[in-house]
Amino acid sequence: MLKGLALTPPVIGRIAIGRVVEKNGRRLPEKDDEFTLTSQVQNQEGWVVHPMDAQLRKDPQAKLRSIPVRLLFDDPDLSLRAHYTMFDRATGRPLCVGDGESCKRVTLSGMQSLPCPSPSVCALAQDGHCKPYGRLHVRIDAEDGGHTDAGTGATGDELSSFVFRTTGFNSIRTLSARLRYLFAASGGLLAALPLELRLRGKSTTLSHRTPIYYVDLTLRSGHSLAQVVALARQERQQQAALGLDQAALDEAARQGLALGEFEESSEEVASAGVIEEFFAEPERPESLGPSSEYAEVTTPPTLKTKLARKLLATADQGGTHAGA
Fold first, then answer.
1. Domain range holding 48?
2. Other C-beta atoms within 10 Å of 18: how many?
3. Residue 311 in domain
4. Assigned domain for 2 exists
5. Within a domain: residue 3?
6. Helices (DSSP H) in 122-220: which residue ranges?
7. Which stretches of sequence are listed as region Disordered (predicted)?
8. How much is the CA Rg of the chain, to the nearest whole Å?
9. Would 22 be classed as within a structural domain?
10. Can you give the pTM of this predicted structure?
């Protein structure tokens, strides 16, 4: 087993609520008011639409605002991975990943474990380079319950996933809460629940009454919590009788994620377009529009921030000389 390489859930497609558009010669992120399912392949026009996108829309002109899904794991932290993350925008290399209490940071002295004060009070994050970055992995259910031809990219492969990436507070907070509530209410049977991703909108003072869109995870339409929990228990019993071990699958995923210092390598970040879509430098605040959940306005670094960075750099250099 390779050390330093995190084993993440296999991905066969992306779930997006935005795109990258060209404005004034620059490629900038832009939010959308519907889901789009794409493959992991890009061409000159952007990401290639996944066949499942048309299958779920039914009407080509209809907006896709709900997706029937199931989770791969019972553990909420395996399905949704969210951290404060800072990337090197030039290389895509992860530089610092933390949870608000502790972080792993690449320094001149090597990899270090340090306190993580969160981006709002971290001297290294004042330019908006560090953001909450979440990845939700789900299986998409087709009309016949998800057992479709794997050649079409549907969920015939029950160990593959579609990934929804976001740096939006609303999506990360809502998905985190839903996963924990559903985990508690179902007795830990998250992977057996028939669920649905929904796109929701809301207006805030900062959005100037323009709706901002975020992603929620709910029960399927027409199902009550008692009904889906009863079905989940029945399904789990049937799986156990067939020899399927969900607990062992969760543990294998947990061990695989722990193999790497960071979950994603620079190659994965670059190929997925993460920097361009979620961590791009804004041209002007007004160019991004109030509807963008992840296009946040950044301010120039203050003198205090610059001094703090200089002290951190000096401390790193001192550690390097001491180690020598």
1. 11-323
2. 22
3. yes
4. no
5. no
6. 169-185
7. 282-302
8. 21
9. yes
10. 0.80
